[in-house]
Amino acid sequence: xxxxxxxxxxxxxxxxxxxxxxxxxxxxxxxxxxxxxxxxxxxxxxxxxxxxxxxxxxxxxxxxxxxxxxxxxxxxxxxxxxxxxxxxxxxxxxxxxxxxxxxxxxxxxxxxxxxxxxxxxxxxxxxxxxxxxxxxxxxxxxxxxxxxxxxxxxxxxxxxxxxxxxxxxxxxxxxxxxxxxxxxxxxxxxxxxxxxxxxxxxxxxxxxxxxxxxxxxxxxxxxxxxxxxxxxxxxxxxxxxxxxxxxxxxxxxxxxxxxxxxxxxxxxxxx
Length: 271
Hints:
Elements: H1 2-14, E1 65-75, E2 82-84, H2 90-93, E3 98-100, E4 105-106, E5 109-110, E6 114-118, E7 134-139, E8 142-144, E9 147-151, E10 154-160, E11 166-169, E12 174-177, E13 184-188, E14 195-200, E15 207-213, E16 217-220, E17 226-233, E18 235-244, E19 248-256, E20 261-269
Parallel strand pairs: 1-20, 7-10, 9-15
Antiparallel strand pairs: 1-17, 2-3, 4-5, 6-16, 6-18, 7-8, 10-13, 11-12, 11-14, 14-15, 18-19
């Protein structure tokens, strides 16, 4: 009797780490866990919720958005291009002689028209500059590209790839740039006109345009006259403008449906 009690006491003391010889308690049967999803594997997930727990609430989608796309056409005779003659530094600038077309039309489609959508909201996406910035290059005494779409407060990065000096003038700032000099890095700000004309005081034929958008929803028509703007918050009677540097501006309103593209065709006429 005394030996039996000692065995029982010893069994109680060590039962937390090992079972006593001569007796093993069977584990209770596993309780199946119900799932609202079809079972594709027999693998047991330790943190699977019990069947009695409420289902997780559905994740609310981001603000419903749609897109706006279309084509810009041109009606009438295309204006004659400007003829460029190197009247200054011809030994270096003659490579850039030729024509400069301000109204670029192909098969009746207009390139270089800027479409901008005005959305009133406190939660608009931020403006983002390209990885290399908003770049303008001077080569053969010409600016490239002809049109650059940026935003007010953006930094222009201007390079001189020529062997002659240039004088870059935006009306807001006016800077000399020697051959091989570091890039000019200056901000451009909206001053009432969305277009900023960039010129060279030394070579009068040099010209480029910077459109300063005030809304993050903008695009320029490509060589096929096509454009697309994504991620516009859905709504009705949303205002917009389409502007060309020499052909003027048109105003419009559109209805944007969530998850669907809104399409529209614009037409500019020869002046």
